[in-house]
Automatic annotation (TrEMBL):
<dbReference type="InterPro" id="IPR004838">
    <property type="entry name" value="NHTrfase_class1_PyrdxlP-BS"/>
</dbReference>
<protein>
    <recommendedName>
        <fullName>Aminotransferase</fullName>
        <ecNumber>2.6.1.-</ecNumber>
    </recommendedName>
</protein>
<dbReference type="Pfam" id="PF00155">
    <property type="entry name" value="Aminotran_1_2"/>
</dbReference>
<dbReference type="InterPro" id="IPR004839">
    <property type="entry name" value="Aminotransferase_I/II_large"/>
</dbReference>
<dbReference type="InterPro" id="IPR015422">
    <property type="entry name" value="PyrdxlP-dep_Trfase_small"/>
</dbReference>
<feature type="domain" description="Aminotransferase class I/classII large">
    <location>
        <begin position="22"/>
        <end position="351"/>
    </location>
</feature>
<dbReference type="InterPro" id="IPR015421">
    <property type="entry name" value="PyrdxlP-dep_Trfase_major"/>
</dbReference>
<dbReference type="InterPro" id="IPR015424">
    <property type="entry name" value="PyrdxlP-dep_Trfase"/>
</dbReference>
<dbReference type="GO" id="GO:0004400">
    <property type="term" value="F:histidinol-phosphate transaminase activity"/>
</dbReference>
<keyword id="KW-0032">Aminotransferase</keyword>
<keyword id="KW-0663">Pyridoxal phosphate</keyword>
<comment type="similarity">
    <text>Belongs to the class-I pyridoxal-phosphate-dependent aminotransferase family.</text>
</comment>
<keyword id="KW-0808">Transferase</keyword>
């Protein structure tokens, strides 16, 4: 287990299991795989790998622009969303910042590097891990918070803010906001995505990647959105020639406009998430929490804790996320993502067996 999930190569070696037989419920990657149109487009254009990409990535930017309804000149490109997140935090360089707790650990890691004072907004199970918007706004004002960074939906709780709620924070506070929309495509983007606010609010930045929903972590393509000229110039000054490779460029020009693929993945994840939530809700000793991502946070009410559960499931080639590394969560919590139907059923069968008493 590394800080962000499982090392399937290490598991295969230690447990004597073939990698092909491991089902990784900790990775949060869309199990349907990449857009077939994008892969076919790559195969049809392999000759382009012998040439340099367009240095301005005009077609790629236009494809993203149409996808997120944001002006193309307000887009920055990077080697995955993590790189853009790190550079964005360096750009904002807040003296006082706020994160949710629990959340993705890299926000805190990067803020600590710039010696920012970090205020944690605790998400509590008694409130279903939801944010009390008025309470959040009051704390931002009282503590003079300059910068708020969070994932929407939040990892690992799966809770979410609507675009209208984010706009309220923008209007009622002076804080700059960085929204990590890594998992936004798994939910209703028309309601929850804040990309439509970019062109109107200079104190907002949004970051997205292509690893989770588009199932292409290997191409390392991420992008950020902002209408703040200083933000855009900061990234422009950091650019190197041909920062995005040809594989990422070719796939990106196609997959963002593959509407059939977008609909298929959304429908698959939505239906399976509802089904798995329903089935786990029937297990007396487990309590799943409603999620807007492609993962579900589950509390163990009685029986083996998450660490022991993980070891039990590893013997069956099933990998879950033990949530003890997340702040405000302990050994009674674990997280699973949605995989293919066979893997999902295998996991459910084992959970029902382990926690049936």
């Amino acid at each position: 287990m590394n800080s962000h999930g499982a090392n399937v190569f290490e598991i295969a070696k230690n447990k004597g299991i073939e990698i092909k037989d491991i089902r990784d419920f900790s990775s949060n990657i869309n199990p349907l795989g990449p857009s077939k149109k994008a892969l076919d487009g790559l195969l049809d254009n392999l000759n382009l790998l012998s040439s340099y990409p367009d240095v301005d990535y005009i077609d790629l930017r236009n494809s993203i622009s149409n996808y997120v309804n944001c002006k193309s000149h307000n887009i920055v490109l990077g080697l995955g969303s993590t790189e853009i997140l790190k550079d964005s935090i360096k750009f904002f360089a807040p003296k006082v910042s706020m994160i949710l707790s629990p959340c993705y650990s890299e926000y805190e890691n990067e803020l600590n590097k710039i010696n920012s004072e970090i205020i944690e907004y605790n998400l509590e199970e008694k409130n279903d891990f939801k944010i009390d918007l008025d309470d959040l706004i009051n704390i931002i004002k009282e503590k003079s918070v300059e910068f708020l960074v969070f994932a929407n939906p939040n990892n690992p709780t799966g809770t979410i803010l609507s675009a209208d709620e984010i706009e309220k924070i923008l209007n009622e506070t002076d804080a700059k906001i960085l929204v990590d929309e890594t998992y936004i495509e798994f939910t209703d983007m028309s309601t929850y995505s804040s990309t439509k606010l970019i062109d109107s609010y200079k104190n907002l930045a949004v970051v997205r990647g292509t690893s989770k929903f588009f199932a292409l972590p290997g191409i390392r393509l991420g992008y950020g959105l902002s209408s703040d000229e200083n933000f855009l110039n900061y990234f422009k000054n950091k650019e190197v020639l041909w920062q995005i490779n040809s594989v990422a460029e070719i796939c990106g020009k196609i997959m963002f406009s593959d509407e059939d693929y977008l609909r298929e993945v959304f429908d698959f994840i939505s239906s399976r998430r509802n089904y798995i939530f329903s089935e786990i809700s029937k297990i007396k000793n487990l309590k799943p929490h409603k999620s807007f991502g492609n993962f579900i946070l589950i509390r163990i009410l009685s029986g083996p804790n998450a660490t022991k559960l993980r070891e039990k499931l590893l013997e069956k080639g099933l990998v879950i996320r033990d949530c003890t590394s997340f702040k405000n969560l302990d050994q009674s919590y674990f997280r699973i993502c949605i995989l293919d139907d066979d893997a999902n059923e295998k996991l459910l069968e084992n959970l029902k067996e382990i926690y049936k008493r």
